[in-house]
Amino acid sequence: MKTYDVAVAGGGLIGASIALELACAGLRVGVFDAQQPGREASWASAGMISPSPESAAMTSLLPMSLASVAIYPEFIRRVEELSGQTAGYRQDGGLDVLLTEEEMKDVPETLALHRACGLQAEVLDAEKAYELEPALTAEIRGAILRRDEASLDNRAFTGATLEAARRKGVEIYSNNGAKALWLEGPACKGLQLENDRVEARWTVIAAGCFSARIEGAAAYAPVVPAKGQMMALRCDGVRIAHDLWSNHMYLVPRNDGRIIAGATIEYEGFDRSMTAAGMKSILEGAISLVPALEKARVEETWAGLRPDSPDHLPILGPTDREGLLIATGHFRSGILLAPITAELIREWVTTQKVSVDWTPFHPMRFQEKRQTRTA
Ligand SMILES: Cc1cc2nc3c(=O)[nH]c(=O)nc-3n(C[C@H](O)[C@H](O)[C@H](O)COP(=O)(O)OP(=O)(O)OC[C@H]3O[C@@H](n4cnc5c(N)ncnc54)[C@H](O)[C@@H]3O)c2cc1C
Question: What is the atom index within ligand 1 of the atom nearest the CA of 38?
Answer without folding.
Answer: 49
